[in-house]
Amino acid sequence: MQYNFDEIIDRSTSHSVKLNKLKTVFGRDDLIPLWVADMDFLSPPAITEALIERTRHGIFGYTVPYDGYFLSIINWLKDRHSYEVYRNEITFVPGVVKGFAFAIDAFTKKNDKIIIQPPVYHPFRIVPEALERRVVNNPLLLENGKYSIDFEGLKGIIAENDCKMLILCNPHNPVGRVWNEDELIQLAEICYDNNILVVSDEIHSDLTLPGFRHRPFATVSEKAKENSITLMAPSKTFNIAGIVSSFAVIHNPEIRKLYLNYLAPRELDQATIYALAATEAAYNYGEEWLDQALAYIQKNIDFVENYLKEYIPQINAVKSEATFLVWLDCRALNLTQQELVDLFVNKAKLALNDGTVFGKEGEGFMRLNVGTPLSNIEKALDNLRKALNS
Q1: Among candidates 86, 56, 61, 58, which has minimal Cα distance to 73?
Q2: Residue-by-residue DSSP string for 130-166
C-alpha cells in the first residue's frame, strides 16, 4: 500500500497542542507550526481500524495487558532492533517523561545529583529540578558539525560529584545523533563502574534514518544490560502520542523489582484499553507505513539542507541521523537569541523551538519539525528567506 504523506490534514478542530498553544507560547497564532514533536501525517490505517473495532465492542471496563500486546512488543524489538526481551521484563508506563520521573522517585532522593547531556530534551532538566534533585550537565561536544559525548568531561564530573543517575537520550533529541556501539559501551562502563543508573529514553528508536541503525543501550554489553532502565513507545514512531502507549524494559531483577514496587501501588503500570489496542496494531501492522514515512522524512530533510545551502547559507542544518527534528545552526547570522526568535516568529511567521529551551548550549540554534507535508516546509523556508532578505 502506498501512503500519501503530502496530504494536508486539518488539525484545527482536534485540540492540537501544536496549534492551540501558539498564542500562549509565541504570542500570536498566525504561524506555521513546526515545533511540537508530533507529525502532521495520518497514523497507519491499521491503528485506526483497531481502535474502531475495539470501540464497537461497547464495554470499556477494567482491562489487563494480554498475550497479543506483549508479543507485539517482543517481536517488534527482535525484528527491528535485534533486541531480545521477555514478557516479565516489560511494564507499561503512562509516558516516557513520566517513566523517568518515576525512576527518579524510585532510585534517588532529594538533592541527589543526576547527569544530563545538553543540549537535550528539556524535561531531562525540568523534571529532576521539579523533584528537587540537582542536575549536573555533561554537555555534548560539537566538532566539525557533529555532536559527540564528552567522556573526559563525564569522568571529571563523576570524580567531583556523587551522581546517582544519568538520563540518556538515545537517539538524541534535538541534535539527531544515533549513538554507536562503541560510544554506548564506553558510557555503560563508566556508569556501571561508578554505580550510576542509566535511564535510556529511546522513544525515537524507530525513527533512525536510512543508513543508520539504532542500538538499544541494554544490548551493547552486560554492564549496560544490568544497569539500565529502557523507556520506549510506539507514540513518536506512528504519530499516536495522544494515546499514551509507553513501556519500560528492565533486565536486572533487582532494579525491576524496585521500579515495579514504585509503580504498582500507585497503579501507574495500568495500561488503558486504547494503549493496548494501538500498540498491538502498530507493531504488528505498521512497518510498511513506517518505512515509507522515514523515506518521506529523509526527503524533507534533504530539501531543507539543499534549500539552506542555496538560499540561506548562514543557517546550517546539523546532519540528522534520526528523528523528524532538524537542529538548525543559526550562529552565523550573528543575532542574539532574542533577535533570532523574533526573526523566526514575528518576521518569518514560523513557530519553531527556541534552541535555549534545550539548555544554554542551544544558543544560536532552532529546532525544526519536518514531520509534515513538504509543501509546509517549502512555504516555511520561503518565509524565512524573504524575512532575511527584507
Answers
A1: 86
A2: HTTPEEEE-PPEEETTEEE--HHHHHHHHHHS-EEEE
Residues 6+ apart with CB under 8 A from 1: 288
How much is the pLDDT for 115?
Answer: 98
First-to-final CA distance of the chain: 45
What angle do the packed helices 287-311 and 374-389 form, to 10 degrees? 20
DSSP output for 68-93: HHHHHHHHHHHHHH-----GGGEEEE
**C-alpha distances out from residue 111 to 106, 128, 135, 313, Å:** 14, 10, 9, 45
| C-alpha closest to that of 121 among 323, 336, 317, 292 | 323
pTM of the model: 0.97
The reported pLDDT for the residue numbered 377 is: 98
pLDDT recorded at residue 51? 98
What is the C-alpha to C-alpha distance for residues 165 and 249, in angstroms, rounded to an integer?
A: 17
Residues of the chain where predicted confidence (pLDDT) is lower than 70: none
Helix axes 181-193, 151-160, angle to 10 degrees: 10
Residue range 22-62, pLDDT digits in tens: 999 999 999 999 999 999 999 999 999 999 999 999 999 99
Amino acid at 233: A
| Residue among 159, 150, 152 nearest 194 (CA) | 159
Domains and CATH numbers, the chain: 17-44+287-389 (3.90.1150.10), 59-285 (3.40.640.10)
pLDDT of residue 253: 98
